[in-house]
Amino acid sequence: MVTASTPSLNAARPPAGIRIVGVAKDFGGDAALRGVDLDIAPGELVALLGPSGSGKTTLLRIIAGLEDASAGQVFFGADDATRLSVQERRVGFVFQHYALFRHMSVFDNVAYGLKVRPRAQRPSKAEIRERVLSLIDLVQLGGLERRYPSQLSGGQRQRVALARALAVEPRVLLLDEPFGALDAKVRKDLRRWLREIHDRTGHTTVFVTHDQDEAMELADRVAILNKGRLEQVGTADEVYEAPASAFVMSFVGDTVNLPVVVRGGRIFFGDAPLEADVADAPDGPAALYLRPSNLALTRCDEGGALGGTVVAVRRTANGRRAEVLTDVGAATVEVELPSGKTLAAGERVGLHILKARLFPTG
Amino acid sequence: MASVSLNTGRLAGPRAVSRRATTEALLARWLLIAITLCFLALFLLLPLLAVFSQAFAAGLETYWAALREPDALAAVRLTLLVAAIAVPLNLVFGIAASWAITKFEFRGKSFLITLIDLPFSVSPVVAGLIYVLLFGAQGYIGPFLKSQGLQIVFALPGIVLATVFVTFPFVARELIPLMQQQGTSDEEAALTLGASGFTAFRTVTLPNIRWALLYGVLLCNARAMGEFGAVSVVSGRIRGMTNTMPLQVEILYNEYNIVAAFAVASLLALLALLTLAGKSILEWRYGDSLDA
Ligand SMILES: Nc1ncnc2c1ncn2[C@@H]1O[C@H](COP(=O)(O)OP(=O)(O)OP(=O)(O)O)[C@@H](O)[C@H]1O
Ligand SMILES: [Mg+2]
């Protein structure tokens, strides 16, 4: 890592927070955003997470001023950004496909935002040079400043794009799926590295992704967007442990979902009552969501356990999982296997539900 | 071939097939190349050589004399002048049109695209006639303009108008596909970095399209200097006044002044060849910068 931290790399003034109030966007047909409210603290790193088409890019572009909201306002600190042009908002925007200027060297790309300033505000040539070179160092591309974008790898291009966005001392930093086009290993490296940069420069940052791992690992808080609505905003632990909706639950991790009926405060799966620890639920049909790690294996004849037959055992990146077909309801359930435990297809098992969440359906 | 196809060994089957396939492909390739070359020689190269050989048939002296003749000089001047006005106009129009079409969403966009192609589909003679109908002495607005002391038809403005009309699509047609492919994110990046719209255009858009733009301008220029149909209708063909080079060639030819006709024609051909050379150099550079 680069250790010498020049003051010019830090946000010029204390970073501004972002306040989004009732922002909606209509593209003529379907609504892309339906009344989004979001408060982002100064210096916070928030991940906007959601499936494709949920409006993440649209929201980010509205914050940047590249798109006009149909309704609602965006504030940077106390300033109403909705009244400011793109240029006046001074956002650092990193595009999914880099959008580097292909006819300019790495140096000129990073220097662009400083060179286009009006003469009165433009730093001197020497200052520009110093600032650009230290930014290129910050993104660990020292020595490559003469290269052209076409001579860089995807990961390197994205780092140039970040340096270019940081050069203008932005009030907020906006990144639209910055690592979307990169392979898993590079993504992971860049993720940590981006967090380090964020901690050093202290910009208020909004980061769009559809990769839940990326969002949870990187962000202070995760904002989950679905069909133009914010479903939940919270820390990674909050959205994982206490999802506000079935959508959030199934989006931020692997889930098993069982169609159940609640009668008199008890949960029935098929005809069998289930022993599951859930808060008081209204009577009626519901979906019981649980994570593979929230199931424990027991013997099949143990009381209260859900009986089933192992269909297959699979290896995943994080461990081994058994697919179990339940006796009642004939649902396929995934269970995480403790290390050392072996199971064969056809074996009879019992399942204990350790923890689950109930979401009423219909 | 025969011995191969008779061979029934296990390996021979596929190999024989591929051998035959490539032999056939080779044959077809040479045949196609030969046909193309013959065609080009017969229909393009030979006439070009004929132009120059005819031009110099009566010797260098006569050639120079034919070119130094006042009417010929006037035609050369007029052609260059018309191109010098029409090409920059279409450069600006072309950029504006492609910019509007590729960077904005608006109603009637596909109609606009069709409109840009109009000059390609309408006969130049018809285009010329339209201008006469509009601006002529018996036309719709011609008499009014005449009363204001403005002569459009049978004068320079008419020739420029006709040329602009005919050569309009070249720049736009060259730019639209490229700008569509490049999208708007480069410009948006420039805007977020604080550049004004014009600065973004100058420092980002223009460099991104420069080769295609030059290519379009060269094609536009070649056509502007060579246009015959539309210009012939609106110019009135006044010798030494409203005759462009192509018109001058035709007049000289009709007067059986073969050497002079070919002398002027050779000059026109030379200009075209220069444009072609410029285009080849650009294509070479352009392909390079597209790879990069
Ligand atoms: N310029 C536009 N014109 C019309 N509709 C648009 C436009 N941009 C986005 N949309 C629509 O708005 C919705 C949200 O799009 P958006 O690009 O914000 O999604 P996203 O969450 O960024 O998706 P992805 O993860 O695929 O990038 C989509 O239904 C999309 O079709
Ligand atoms: Mg998007």
Automatic annotation (TrEMBL), chain A:
One of its GO terms (biological process) is quaternary ammonium group transport. Belongs to the ABC transporter superfamily. NCBIfam families: 3a0106s01. GO terms for molecular function: ABC-type sulfate transporter activity; ATP binding; ATP hydrolysis activity. SMART domains: AAA. It comes from the Bacteria. GO terms for cellular component: ATP-binding cassette (ABC) transporter complex. InterPro entries: AAA+_ATPase (IPR003593), ABC_SmlMolc_Importer (IPR050093), ABC_transporter-like_ATP-bd (IPR003439), ABC_transporter-like_CS (IPR017871), Mo/tungstate-bd_C_term_dom (IPR008995), P-loop_NTPase (IPR027417), Sulph_transpt1 (IPR005666). This is Sulfate transport system ATP-binding protein.
Automatic annotation (TrEMBL), chain B:
CDD domains: TM_PBP2. It comes from the Bacteria. Keywords: Cell inner membrane, Cell membrane, Membrane, Sulfate transport, Transmembrane, Transmembrane helix, Transport. One of its GO terms (cellular component) is plasma membrane. InterPro entries: CysW_permease, MetI-like, MetI-like_sf, Sulph_transpt2. One of its GO terms (molecular function) is ABC-type sulfate transporter activity. Signal peptide: none annotated. Residues 76-277 form the ABC transmembrane type-1 domain. The chain crosses the membrane at residues 30-52, 72-99, 111-137, 149-172, 256-277. It is found in: Cell inner membrane. Its main location: membrane. It is a multi-pass membrane protein. NCBIfam families: 3a0106s02, permease_CysW. Part of the ABC transporter complex CysAWTP (TC 3.A.1.6.1) involved in sulfate/thiosulfate import. Probably responsible for the translocation of the substrate across the membrane. The complex is composed of two ATP-binding proteins (CysA), two transmembrane proteins (CysT and CysW) and a solute-binding protein (CysP). This is Sulfate transport system permease protein CysW. It comes from Chelatococcus asaccharovorans.
